[in-house]
């Protein structure tokens, strides 16, 4: 549903229904129910009024792929208007995580990312973001699991859709809906400094993840073009101010590109940039994307780079790479489906 809690309660009041009905509706949605008629603890007349005016979800699943023996599931959803976005459910022994999209496409234009290869579509509305999580919860509940973590690392630049992303975080955290603690939500950004500052004032202690990928402006200008507006040292300063204000350690994401950003020089520059900071470095082996000049480093190079970064005194891990055979890197399932829809020239 597209309504906020206040808006739904106002609608209920217009229909002579008490405000507590909103909590009942959200509880049903959190269970994955997509038919108002199935919400049996609501009066029949109210169920009929809801069905006449609303949809439980606006998303339509158009493709699903699985990997890792079923532990990773990627779904491509079609939005109202025809654009599509991806969401990826990753199952672990101690948690279930959803990688969520905030935009159809991405305006940042990082050259190694599949999402940026297609024209930018539009911002998602808050309810479209939340509906990805509700769909994941529906799938997981049927397996005896619950959605425990959400990472805004799918399609799009979350900070470029700031209002909807913050509203969706508040809804995800609402105990009447999914009740996911903000401390279990990660919001990633390529570096929109004013929005980082604003996020620190929201009072929602999400973990901030910076898509860093390079520690010097010369290289980051190429890999993350927004760096030309918000240089890397200014970005780290803003990120650390966020960390200090919220008490949350900042995560710095580093997609490893063979012979591009995996040298000893890169490790030392990263060490200088983050020395003494409340920070964690997350190394991400590149998932190959067609029609790009980039490749993944070999395993030995990944281990060597990790050791060099650790030698700089930084906390560093290599991300568990999930779903290579499921097109699970950002934008890859979307790219494959869109390519299949393009007309063939004869």
Walk me through the structure.
By secondary structure, this protein is of the alpha/beta class. The chain folds into 2 domains: 1-56, DNA polymerase, domain 1 (Orthogonal Bundle), CATH 1.10.150; 57-341, TIM Barrel (Alpha-Beta Barrel), CATH 3.20.20. Helix content is 35%, strand content 18%. The protein is built from 11 helices and 12 strands. The chain has helices at residues 5-14, 20-30, 44-53, 126-141, 162-173, 193-199, 217-223, 232-246, 264-274, 299-310, 332-341; strands at 60-67, 72-78, 84-91, 96-99, 103-104, 122-123, 149-152, 185-189, 207-211, 250-256, 279-285, 316-318. The strands form 2 sheets. A 10-stranded mixed sheet has the order 1-2-3-4-7-8-9-10-11-12, sandwiched between helices. A hairpin with a 4-residue loop joins strand 3 (84-91) and strand 4. Helix 4 (126-141) packs parallel to helix 5 and helix 6 (193-199) packs parallel to helix 8. The model has no long low-confidence stretch (mean pLDDT 92).
